[in-house]
Automatic annotation (TrEMBL):
Keywords: Aminoacyl-tRNA synthetase, ATP-binding, Cytoplasm, Ligase, Metal-binding, Nucleotide-binding, Protein biosynthesis, Zinc
Residue ranges of domain Cysteinyl-tRNA synthetase class Ia DALR in the record: 359-421
Documented EC number(s): 6.1.1.16
Protein name: Cysteine--tRNA ligase
Native source species: Nesterenkonia sedimenti
Binding site for Zn(2+): C29, C227, H252, E256
Amino acid sequence: MALRLYDTKTAQLRDFQPIKPGQVSLYYCGATVQGRPHVGHVRSAVAFDLLIRWLEASGHDVLSVRNVTDIDDKILEKSQASYAEGFEPTADYPAEEPWFALAYRFEQAFHEAYDALGVRRPRYEPRATGHITEMFALIQRLIEAGHAYRAADDSGDVYFDVRSWPKYGELTRQSVDDMQDAPDADPRGKRDSRDFALWKGHKDGDPETASWDSPWGRGRPGWHLECSAMSTKYLGETFDIHGGGLDLRFPHHENELAQSAAAGDGFANFWLHNGMVTYEGEKMSKSIGNTISPEEMLQQARPKAVRYFLGQAHYRSQLDYKPGALQEAEAAVERIESFISRALPESFSLVPQQHIPEGFRAAMDDDLNVPAALAVLHETVRAGNTAIDAGDKSAAEQRGLEAATMMSILGLLDVPEPDLSSGPAASALETLVQAQLDKRAEAKSAKDFGTADAIRDQLNAAGVVIEDTPQGASWSLKGDA
RNA sequence: GGUGGGGUGGCCGAGUGGCGAGGCAGCGGCCUGCAAAGCCGUAUACGCGGGUUCGAUUCCCGUCCCCACCUCCA
């Protein structure tokens, strides 16, 4: 059975076949680095990380690209505001910060958030400002093809001519005439209010560093253009998959498609969009302010649990966050991990492709049905625990390898966790806890259960969980499997 | 107004024309000195009203409600 993916453009599940057998070219939209990442950003990154991992587990080489949009209106506005009189600096927005410094700083914040959740870096991560000449070339092609024009006023803007491209709206199946009129206060030199800027002429007050000489005068690129320019540069004029958040479908992806297709590029064969993250039913967004940061989540739960939470719903579904959700995820992750550590010897080598259960493969091949795949994982854990209880070591180990494989494919083995098992503090703790356990063992063998239980309660209160096994007592820290 | 996605047991969340995924929480049991972990069992779930059908949560029609997008959005 082959991989099927839901393509937003055709609104249906389609068999996925890469253009080049064995290699998949994937572009997915990263962030406009104008602020700290919120959960929606990392959900999207986790979703596409999952896709990449599954493609790889299925034997593909994945050429992945994720953009950094490091210039746009918001970045400039925020930088500009930091110079204004009466500006009150905060930890996230210091005073007098140039736009490029602000963008660079938040780009790093995104990296930290991705890294913390085991989202692997894409093969290439190009910045918009590094591809101005590629954008020139694209604009030039559009002008020559009659799909872009210089603004009628003296703004120096260049617009995409929506009416010149009959397919405009094909991605979201909308017709230009049915679109709600943009409340465009400043139509400037546009022919149609839906026309969008490819190039924005330099305005007084904009920093000189945020403008480039172009054939149409000094200025800066419009939003959308960078993704068309960069995706085709790194992946070719036709590539396999273009992804991003559902909210980017319109206008961002619609415009990308229009400008690339109108310039004569084949562009993406598949369009994938992940669902939004909501907070108790409402979309999390900067403008509403109901966001939860990845940092806040990481304070509440282990990184693995956070990743599990973000990946557990189907990627196209809305993912609702509510208090307590992370604790549930933590319980599920710990159940799986404690099984794997019971079933497998200290060190084991994993050859993923040898241990993928058929049900898991079928679920993932079905448009990355992670919830169904997780059901297989949990069933494997139960079967493995049963085998352990029955003393069937080889069956337990087999289930253990399968469970570890699935965890690996889901990216849950790569999530960095604080290492509590080495270092001087760890060995001091080990010595102290072991001394208590020895005392408890003595008390137990003397049938002095009062003392034994007191020791256990005391350790428990300190966050050390005791488990008695036939081989003696073992301990672990709460929240650390 | 246009476009798209939804309403599933206490919560989360898949899925299917007829054997009630999975997780979390709960309850009962096994195990345990007692626990923990693990295992077994346990829920009269599919917004509402019609229709098609031997049979619908699943298909069709109607209806109510929710969410997203329509030029800041992952």
